[in-house]
Amino acid sequence: MSTSTTPPAGAWSGRFAEPVSEIVKRYTASIPFDYRLAEFDIQGSLAHAAMLHHVGVLSKGDLEAIRRGMAELLAEIRTGKFVWSLDREDVHLNIEAALTAKIGDAGKRLHTGRSRNDQVATDVRLYLRDAIDRISTGLRACQSALVDLAEAHTDTVMPGFTHLQVAQPVTFGHHLLAYFEMLARDAERMADCRRRVNRLPLGAAALAGTSYPIDRQFVARELGFEAVCENSLDAVSDRDFAIEFTAAAALVMTHLSRLSEELILWMSPRFGFIDLADRFCTGSSIMPQKKNPDVPELVRGKTGRVNGHLVALLTLMKGQPLAYNKDNQEDKEPLFDTVDTLTDTLAIYADLLTGVTVKREAMRVAVMQGYATATDLADYLVKKGVPFRDAHEVVARTVRAAEAAGRDLAELPLTELQAFSPVIADDVHAVLTLEGSLAARDHLGGTAPAQVRAAIARARARL
Ligand code: ARG
After folding, report:
1. What does pTM read for this prediction?
2. Pairing of strands 227-228, 157-162
3. Is the CB of 326 under 6 A from ligand 1?
4. Active site residue 13
5. How far apart are CA 405 and CA 39, in angstroms?
C-alpha cells in the first residue's frame, strides 16, 4: 500500500479549532490496514447509491456519475495506482474523497442516509463472507487430501494410542479419517457462521436509522445478503459474527495443530512412521544431518496466534456500551490475520498431506511392542464365559509374564497361555494377530478395514 499526506479531508473539520497532532492522526487512522476493505466498500456504496436513486433521493445523473467514478477508482486500486492518505483516516473517507475529486457534488451526495458506522459493519461482513467461502473451499481440499491418503492405507496397521501409550491396533486410514470428521464439523461451523455474517447492517446509519425513505431489502438483494439486521443499534455495534468466525477458525487451527503434533512425532526417528516431502522441511545451519518438520511446527505455533485473536476480539467487545464505539476499529487486524493465517494454513496443508510417505513396517513393529491385542485376549475369554473383570485380571497377569519373558502375547505357546486360564484353546492365536484384532472391530465407526473402506466411500459422497 502507498500512502501520502494530503490536506485534511474535512469530513468534520468545521467543528474543530485545531487539527489533530501527527501522533493522534497515526493512532486513530485505520487506513494502514483497512484499505483491504476497498473493493467491498465500493460494492456497498454502489448498492447504497442504487437504492437512494430507487427511492427518489438521488438523481439518475448522480447515480451514473457515482458508478463511473467508482469504476475508475476500482481500476486504480486494483492496479496499485490509488494513493491512500493518512489524513483521510480510513478506507471509507479515502474513497469518498477520491470519488468527489473525480465527479464533484454527486460524490458528496453518496453519504446521504448513511454513516461510516453502518458502512464499516457492512464492509466487514462482505469481506468475511468472501473469506468464509474461500476457507470452505480450502477445508474441502484438506478433507479430500485426507481421504486420498486414508484410501491408500485402509489396511495399514499402526498402534492406536491413549495417553501416548500403545493401546490397540488401528489402521492408519482410520486414524486419518478422525481428522476428516474434525474438518467436516469445522466446515459445518463455517457454513453456519456464514448465515449470521450474511445480514445487512446498512440502513442503521450512525445508530438510530435515518429520516430518508430507505429500502433496506433493496440493498440486501443488491449485495446478496440473506437478511437485514433487525435493530439499528445492534447492527452498528456488535461484532459477534467476527468473534464467532474467529472461534470457528481457532478450532480449525486447533485440529490441524493436533495433526501437526502427530506428524512431528511420527517423523521423529523414535517413531519413524512417516517422512514428509523435502519441500515442507528445512535443514539446520549447524547440524548437517537435520531435516526439520518446520511447516507442521509453524501450524502448531500459528494456532497460538489465532487463539490470541479470538481472545482479543472477545475482550474488545465485552466492555462496550451501545452503540458504535471506536474500539470496534480494533476488530480488523485480528480478523484479517485470522483469515490470512487460516487461508494459508489450509492451502499448505492440502499439499503437505500429498507429500506424506508412510513407513508401514515401522508402524507394524511399533504396534507389536505394546501388547496391543491384550483387550482382544480379554474379549476372547469373555466369549468363553469368563466375566469381563476376571478376564481383565487374567490378561494383566499374562502381559506381565510376557513382558518379563520379553515376548509378545502372540509368541507365547498355547501351554503357557493355558497356565493363566484353562478356557484358552488353540483358536486363541487368531485373535492375537493384528489383522484379527482389526477385523473384529467391524461396526460403524470401527477400525476394521472393511469399515474404513465404507467410511471412505461415505466421506467422498459428503464432499
Ligand atoms: N474506521 C472506522 C472503523 O473501523 C470506521 C467507522 C468510524 N466511525 C466513527 N464514528 N468514527 O470502525
Report:
1. 0.94
2. unpaired
3. yes
4. no
5. 72
* pLDDT above 90 (res 283): no
Ligand 1 close to Cβ of residue 30 (< 6 A):
yes
Residue 341 pLDDT grade (very low, low, confident, very high; cuts 50, 70, 90): very high
Mutate to test the pocket of ligand 1, among 45, 120, 236, 238 (most ligand atoms within 8 A of CB): 120
Q: Ligand 1 centre and the CA of 19: distance in Å?
A: 18
> Is residue 284 annotated as part of the catalytic site, yes or no?
yes
Q: Which domains are assigned to the chain?
A: 22-112 (1.10.275.10), 117-154+172-364 (1.20.200.10), 366-462 (1.10.40.30)
pLDDT reading at 15 higher than 90: no
pLDDT digits (tens, 9 = 90+) for 230-240: 999 999 999 99
User: With a 6 A CB cut-off, is 90 part of the ligand 1 pocket?
Assistant: yes
Read off the pLDDT of residues 164-181 as tens digits, 9 standing for 90 and up. Answer: 999 999 999 999 999 999
The pLDDT assigned to 3 comes to: 59
- The pLDDT of 278-298, averaged and rounded, is 90
| Residues belonging to the chain | 463
Site to substitute for ligand 1 among 40, 313, 329, most atoms within 8 A of C-beta: 329
Task: Please indicate whether residue 329, judged by its CB atom, sits closer than 6 Å to ligand 1.
Answer: yes
Residue closest by Cα to atom 10 of ligand 1: 117
Spatial separation of the C-alpha atoms in residues 180 and 150, rounded to whole Å: 10
Which ligand 1 atom is the nearest neighbour of the CA of 328?
Answer: 12
The pLDDT value given to residue 305: 98
* Separation of alpha carbons 336 and 317, rounded Å: 17
CA distance linking residue 79 with residue 440, whole number of Å: 62
Which is catalytic among the residues 163, 211, 285, 443? Answer: 163
pLDDT of 242 > 90? The answer is yes
Q: Which residues of 33-61 are buried (b: 16+ CB within 10 A; e: fewer)?
A: bbbbbbebbbbbbbbbbbbbbeeebbeee
For residues 359 and 23, what is the distance between their CA atoms, to the nearest angstrom? 59
SS3 47: helix
pLDDT digits (tens, 9 = 90+) for 375-391: 999 999 999 999 999 99
Q: What is the structure's pLDDT at 10?
A: 54
